[in-house]
Known about the structure:
Blueprint: E1 2-6, E2 24-27, E3 40-42, H1 47-50, E4 57-62, E5 67-71, H2 77-87, E6 92-95, H3 101-106, E7 112-114, H4 117-124, H5 131-144, H6 147-150, E8 160-164, H7 178-191, E9 194-196, E10 209-213, E11 216-220, E12 234-235, H8 244-248, H9 254-266
Parallel strand pairs: 1-2, 1-8, 2-3, 3-6, 6-7, 8-9
Antiparallel strand pairs: 4-5, 10-11, 11-12
Helix pairs in contact: 4-5, 5-7
Amino acid sequence: MRVAVIGFSPSSYDDAPWDDPTWEKWGMPWDGKGWERYTRLFEMHSPILWDLQTAEHFIEFWDGEKFHRKSHRPANYYDKCLAGAAASPDHLLYVQEGISEEEASQDRNVGLISYPFDRVVPICGEYFQSSIAYVLALAITEIVTHPDVSNLNMTIADCEIGLYGIDVSPDQEWNYQRACIEYLVGLAKGYGIKVTIPETSALLTFHDQFIKYGACNVEHTGRYGNIVQPQVFKRWTLNEHYSVDQLAEMDLPEEAMKLVKRAQLAGSEIKNITT
């Protein structure tokens, strides 16, 4: 069993095994290139949001000749995507609440199918921070509980999950999803599943950043503990309040201490001080 979990980042979207029939393709029905490309689809947002008009125009830009609008959801999303996928016997469409998997199987897999929390939660836990998390958790569950694994006709090590078009970089809007996805990737590896992640993805990589160390920020690179050299260590405070006398006892820079001394002599307060 090989499952490609596919997001929309252009960095590795095209690297997904679209033309390889040995891979199942799992993703979201609002893919602008068509939901028909997938074998399983997941619309895990509340139905209240499915036709939310403010979600339509996601990016607007001018290319020098023409004005473009890139939408978060295609126009007529429900009729164009969800209804079509739900009516297709060649696709499974999961939602928060729908018909059971058993009911769907008796009717050519047609309909909006309830996400199988009863199967997934015992295997992966109840931690879902994004649509991708739902997709990945079900892929793990189906591999771990696959009948061929139980019958020893297939080992978990024979199975693979690939993550494509999923960057979740720290500087992107989707960074909040990263921790949950990485938890599930680690869980999959713990079960013995092979997990393939393109080099362009931010998953399971350290990102150079400033990290608080006592009262200063230290820039780390490559991995935690490996600091950028040379660098200036700058003191910082976060909404901390001190009296003028307390400030006078601190080891402050010369210019800041002059300000403190003047305030002491004048018997006044200091509203803000930057060090």
